[in-house]
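User: Can you help me understand a structure? I only have the sequence.
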Amino acid sequence: MSQGTTVVTPERLAQGLTYQQFIAQIKVNHDRFQEFYESAKLTNEDAEFFRTAVGQGACTVLVLGEDWCPDVFRGLPVVARIAEASNMDIRIFPRDENLDIMSEFLKDGQHQSIPTVVFYNAGHEYLGHWIERPNSANLERAKITETVKQEMAGADDQEIATEARRRTTDRYPFWQQETVKELRQLLADRLGI
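Assistant: Let's start by predicting it. Here is the structure, written out as tokens:
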């Protein structure tokens, strides 16, 4: 996050969409959002942790996303489940219409990666943010792509990309659980839970 003044004022944050409002306005991937909402599961321990986090101050989560992005239709339903289980307020902003917010949370200071998940306390103080996908997914994606390239030597780039996408999609439920773990760790570290 950039230092200094933020464009995410309490008034601006209140203008974000709820999960239901976001889903109602999307133009593509309704089925994918529903599929990954259904597969996004929190254990009782996870739900209790996030309720504790809310009790200790984590009361609002801002998410930047777009309906066309696989990381968003996989990850945003996880954040929605967390918000529902903990009674945390969730506010979603389409990234492409809110580039000023996005510019405060660039991945590696340069990439407009989504989803971007940002936690605030009741005093509207920034608690921390998480970007795009869990670290394990980044590692697995690279390995999957390399394996597909080796197995499909001589295939064109499109065939390789299609097969790599199929194999990574199979990993989405696991990556959802890894997302929960990373979000828990972020809040545990920040709130001392």
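Now, to help you interpret it: The first strand starts at residue 58 and ends at 65. The chain has one domain: 10-133+173-191. Let me know which part you'd like to focus on.
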